[in-house]
Design a protein that fits this description.
single chain; alpha/beta; TIM Barrel; eight-stranded parallel beta barrel; two-stranded antiparallel ribbon; 12 strands; Xyl_isomerase-like_sf; MbnB/TglH/ChrH
């Protein structure tokens, strides 16, 4: 059965929360293989394992015996006007068949033009036309993968003159019409709110809670007056505060830390993840009363 043909009663069901996780990186393979770590689940970068054999897949096969996995892609280019890459999607589906991830995610963006991958995540104009275009492509991907796609909000450093709605309204329209789920990147919300001058709580309160399948946390860099989503530093307090507010609104959602550069020892990331767990526990005892009353929980 294709995703968009499912009975209405199934439309808004999220997969159960996995707990608190980390992005799996080669620097930490040995530690995950040698001893149990205080991590509930792991997220992989899909493209790193869409290969035929070799060490990455061997490591992944071993590690997945002990940890639930989620696949996170960076090259689907769901917002592009170029045809979907069917070979890419077939390889993605094959990897999913091999490792049985809880879900598959990618970014609400375009990543290149004229067949060239520019290896960046470019934002879309927030228009009705773009909604219709992306919804059609997500439905096609979901039919190929035979599962719901989880789409992530990206950080942005420019805006389009013809945008006619907010980013959160754009994201909501796509998720509802395509019947997909959302990966809410709290750091990206913070980065974009500073770069574009909006209140990040409007974003948190503007997306449908029943669509939020996962939350990302990460660090960023300040570069010449802009905040850049670099994933190369520790998470800062304002992002933790925003996460706490998100937890109070959405309830238990699978949450994880991304680190892609200046990767620290696993012990340091586990300490940061313990702080995330503590925030969630504190917020669980103080449910949100909604906007504007919702505020960051005390640490």
């Amino acid at each position: 059965m294709s995703t968009q043909q499912q009975p209405a009663a199934q439309t808004d069901q999220r997969i159960r929360a996995l707990g608190f996780g980390l992005g799996l990186r080669p620097a930490h393979y040995a530690e995950f293989l040698s001893a149990a770590q205080d991590v509930d689940w792991l997220e992989i970068i899909s493209e790193n394992y869409m290969v035929q054999g070799g060490k990455p897949l061997a490591m992944l096969d071993a590690i997945r015996r002990d940890y639930p996995l989620v696949m996170h892609g960076v090259s689907m280019s769901i917002g592009s006007v170029e045809p979907l890459n069917r070979q890419y999607l077939d390889d993605l589906k094959a990897l999913a068949g091999r490792i049985e991830p809880a879900w598959i995610s990618d970014h609400l963006c375009w990543t290149g033009a004229h067949g060239v991958n520019l290896h960046d995540l470019y934002p879309l104009p927030y228009t009705e036309e773009a909604v219709r275009h992306v919804v059609t492509r997500i439905r096609q991907v979901q039919d190929i993968l035979e599962r719901r796609l989880v789409i992530e909000n990206v950080s942005s450093y420019l805006s389009y003159a013809d945008s006619s709605m907010s980013e959160w309204a754009f994201l909501t329209a796509i998720a509802d019409e395509a019947d997909c789920h959302l990966l809410l990147d709290v750091n990206n919300i913070y980065v974009s709110s500073v770069n574009h001058g909006f209140d990040p709580m409007h974003f948190i309160n503007g997306v449908p809670a029943h669509r939020v399948q996962q939350i990302h946390l990460a660090g960023h860099s300040n570069v010449d007056g802009f905040i850049i989503d670099t994933h190369d530093a520790a998470i800062i307090d304002p992002v933790f505060d925003l996460y706490a507010a998100a937890w109070r609104r959405f309830g238990p959602v699978s949450s994880m830390i991304e680190r892609d550069d200046n990767i620290p020892p696993l012990e340091d990331l586990l300490m940061e993840l313990a702080h995330v767990r503590g925030l969630a526990a504190a917020c669980a005892s103080k449910p949100s009363e909604g906007w504007p009353e919702a505020a960051p929980c005390p640490t």
